[in-house]
Amino acid sequence: MYYQKLDEFQKNFLWGAASAAYQIEGAYQEDGKGLSIWDEYAHQPGNTFKGTTGDVAIDHYHRVEEDVALMAKMGLKAYRFSVAWSRVIPDGEGDVNEAGLAFYRKLITLLKQNQIEPVLTIYHWDLPLALQKKYNGWGSREIIPAFEKYCRTLFSAFKDDVKYWVTFNEQNVFTSMGYRWAQHPPKVTDIKRMYAANHIINLANATAINLFHELVPNGQIGPSFGYGPVYPLTGDPNDVLAAVNANDFNNNWWLDVYCRGEYPYFMLKQLQKAGIAPEITADDQVLLKSAKPDFLGINYYHGGTVQTNRLQKPVKEAEQKDFSATDPYLMQPKADQAQSPEVPMFNSVSNPYLDKTAWGWEIDPVGFRVALRQVYEKYRLPLFVTENGLGAVDELVDGKVDDQYRIDYLAQHVKTMKEAITDGVEMIGYCAWSFSDILSWLNGYKKRYGFVYVNRDDDSQKDLKRIPKASYYWYQQLIAQNGAQITADSEEQ
């Protein structure tokens, strides 16, 4: 769709940035905090790049005032952060750690004093280790009451100060990486267990949403999902069918449950035929149907391209795309992997029209518009972009970081977001990933996303000095002008 002029962003559009507790906080054993599954996992040799951990991370726990001051100077309208469950309830289900709550209360107070809207993510992958050991983590329904108590604690503490809440961050990623690909804790390769755990998380999500609407009637809540549109490689109807299948497998399996309260019929039937579908009781169906999110968070990095499945259209091993374990959005099994439901459905391939990042992630700003259009049209919920950004190797030269490549990436994506708004998509805001450099789960401190450079590397925490990058000042100007400088191709620049 071509426009001569784009609609302006609404005056209250929330220009923000995002982070996650384990990736920034550090202080992993201070002030009564319990251990999380990532605290244990990162300390086991071979699990992370150069054995990097979140023990210190970027020390946000001790530098929160400095970091919020940088956010305020930037002009952020929103800041999305996550709460570490084990900092608030050390064993996941017992006594509340008031010192942990106090840290987040301090952060929220600082944000609001600087007119920055806090966006609180309840769960961003760092499950309390005690719950993993006691209940087998998300592998048991017994964890749901613990999650409900954790949510009740947060809702009661912050219901008057936080309007926007995210239940789970990228459930599609942490379940597959943890229970199928063994790249995240609990480091399992069992797809049946993955679907079982995913169902339990869906029940926990629905429980949290219903409790929220009871306790926080003036707030808004929804999950954040790692969404990518799916393209057929060619106009061959078999490739088109493969794309329909892949969209069900990659997106609808989660979003239909979040937004419609039921699993999509096609995928459910495939999993039942393969003997790997989760157990869904009548009570489960009632619970899932009862929970209605107020908005949907979208994390967008790229989509995927597929062709006819490898059984009907065999490919040589040398021709098969190798999806790196560093890209959790595009991992796929070998053709002969047992219990791989996608093998008969589609075959993921490279998109010949797209460039890639240094980590092999496709760069597809137009796909961002496609994603927003598709999700809004299907579910008619307001959308909040909760992640979008570029991971790169940034270099500090003469005390500065010139990350023009990040500016270009973000500007392209903000433009296509503005085009989606002009198309009619209802948007709440946009939180770039990330505000500052962070610990990248499996890639240490080499892969940087932030507007603010943090002076540390994989070998040393150095002085952890905060240094705004060129992109920091670009985003500062973008916010000040409410995106007015982002225009259609036909408008004067």
Automatic annotation (TrEMBL):
| GO cellular component terms, A-Z | cytosol
Output the InterPro entries linked to this UniProt entry. GH, GH_1_N_CS, Glyco_hydro_1, Glyco_hydro_1_AS
Q: Name one Pfam family in it.
A: Glyco_hydro_1
A biological process term (GO) from this entry: carbohydrate catabolic process
Keyword ATP-binding applies = no
Q: Which GO terms describe its molecular function?
A: beta-glucosidase activity
Report the active site residues.
387
Q: Which keywords belong to this entry?
A: Glycosidase, Hydrolase
Q: Does the keyword Hydrolase apply?
A: yes
Q: Which family does it belong to?
A: Belongs to the glycosyl hydrolase 1 family.
- What is this protein's name? Beta-glucosidase
- Organism, as annotated: Lapidilactobacillus concavus DSM 17758
